[in-house]
Amino acid sequence: MIYLDNNATTPLDPAVAASISLELEKQHANAGSQHQAGRMARRTLESAREVIAKLFGLNCSDIHADHVVVTSGATEANNLALRGLLANKIGSCARVVISSQEHPSVDQCVEFLAAAGHSVVRVNSLSNGTIDLDHLESVVDGDTAAVSVIHANNETGIIQPLAQISEICRQAGAPLHTDAVQAVGKTEWDFQAIPVASATISAHKLHGPVGVGALLVRHGTDLYPQITGGFQQQGFRAGTESVFMAVALAKTLELCFGADAQGYRHALCALRDRFEAQITSDIPDVQVIGSDVSRVPHTSCLSFQGLDRQAIQMALDAADICCSTGSACASGSSEPSPTLISMGLSPEVIEGAVRFSFGRFNTVDEIDSACERISSVIKHLRR
Ligand SMILES: Cc1ncc(COP(=O)(O)O)c(C=O)c1O
Hints:
By secondary structure, the protein is an alpha/beta fold. It has helices at residues 14-26, 36-55, 74-86, 104-115, 133-139, 162-172, 243-256, 261-282, 309-318, 338-342, 347-351, 364-382, and strands at residues 2-3, 67-71, 95-99, 119-123, 144-150, 176-179, 198-202, 213-217, 286-288, 299-304, 321-322, 353-357. Helix 4 (104-115) links the parallel strand 3 (95-99) and strand 4 (119-123).
């Protein structure tokens, strides 16, 4: 089997698995307990948090410290960011602005906010897949309670111009949240260089475990907790902290931001370019979505014109290739992708679009073999 669905989830890195079992064996006490076992757990937890903060360039000083809120994953982090920014606007009709290509964990979250009486504006995409900055500028103002723009789209890999977006939001005085799940580790990502109020990350997209992620929160962001109870995580998220999950997240990020981070990105880029070059030379009428704009190096969204995406995915599955027809969180739905619709692509192009995504454990041999199999499957389906 060749696994080319790394945007849905990635295989666990054995080094992360080892760090998890080590921490589990230690049977940490509750990091909130005041006895020495609790203090030991607290130290392990805070060291993990510090590793995460430093890797992202968060300000760790006491007075203006940014926060790492460890969550159950990116879905929770996105919900915390948006609901948390809106929480003190109950009873008023606040405006929330999002792009038209958000992951369901943002898109469906704002549907909930709309049902609660807030107004939601979705900013148009340009045909190249980037956000329409003029439209954004025209809808964001001082009354905007939150703006959310995905940094790199999970279906196309297209990178949004976050620096320009954050400047528009800064000038309007509107807090900007970004879902950076698919951008982190695949681009140079620095919390200080990109002035967002908050950003979401998830371990399982980076060869870490499913079930842990974080919301990076800039100092001074007016964010209300969405899970209430004890005063864990400086009050941003109640509930006994999971020491081993925080350690796993830190280890995942350390490996990802390690000495050879740039080499890893180049390797991914080389795999993707090799893949796209072979597919487009072997198969006629293939469109590479987003080929003329900046994309993350691990995502290739290809449209095989005249074919149905579900039929392609099933036939490739039978040929032992794992790929996807869009966001795994929307799978099961046969609805066409809102991201591709927002780019104004024709129904035929959208109908034939399939996502291939690469990871640290994919090899050149796998790419070559996958290309041969894809070529033969597509030719067979077109016959
Ligand atoms: C861009 C993006 N945001 C959010 C998520 C949700 O992540 P998690 O599974 O950690 O909740 C995903 C994963 O599907 C994603 O690709």
